[in-house]
Every structure is written in C-alpha cells, then in structure tokens.
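Fold it.
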Amino acid sequence: MVASDGFAKFLREQLGPLGPVTMRRMFGKTGVFCDGVMLGMVRDNTLYFRIDDDNRAAFKEAESFPPLNYKKKGGSIDLSFWRAPERLFDEPDELVSWARAALAAARRVAAKRERTAPRRKSKPRS
C-alpha cells in the first residue's frame, strides 16, 4: 500500500535538508526521490532506504528487519531497500544522515546503470 498523504508530507519535511524530496506512486508502493534518484520506498507507511555494498555496514541495524520484497512465482524477491528503524523518527538528524547514505547509494546505482545501458544506434537520415 502507498504512503498516506500525512506520512508523505512528514517525510518531505524531515528529509528537506537533502534538497527537494518528491514522492511517486509505483507498483503499489511510494518511491522517495531526491535529485532524480530513488533513495527510498514506502510501503504501508513504513520507510525503506536504498542499500548497496558501500552503505550496507552503516545500515547494519536495519538488517534485523526483512528487506522490502515482492512475491513472484510463489517465491519472494528481496529488493535493495532496508527498513528504517523506528527510532530514527525521533532523531531527525540521524534520519537525515541515513537518508544521505541512501541517496549516495541511489546515485551509485544510477551511475552504474548509465554505464551498463546498451547504446542505441541512431538511424541514418536520408
């Protein structure tokens, strides 16, 4: 289920120090974006941050919760988003710190995708 309007507003306010934070509904969840990259997702008013190999150790506390996932062909596919601990919502500076680490991971993922994307050949003009 997507983020409620109130939770989305709360996140935009709390994550404001990162820059303009936007939300977009997608696949029954809400993507959390900054600078055009998705640093988090919300499902059922629960925030999940983007993780990668570089920030996995910093997010060790979040590893105790199941990652964001979806069901496919009777199995579960884990995504690279880990649940933000509830205590962060009482610690705004630390919430922003985690969000910065997630934003950095999102930028690395986006850069990697750009490098590996197949280049389209342009059609010759007649």
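The chain is about 30% helix and 30% strand.
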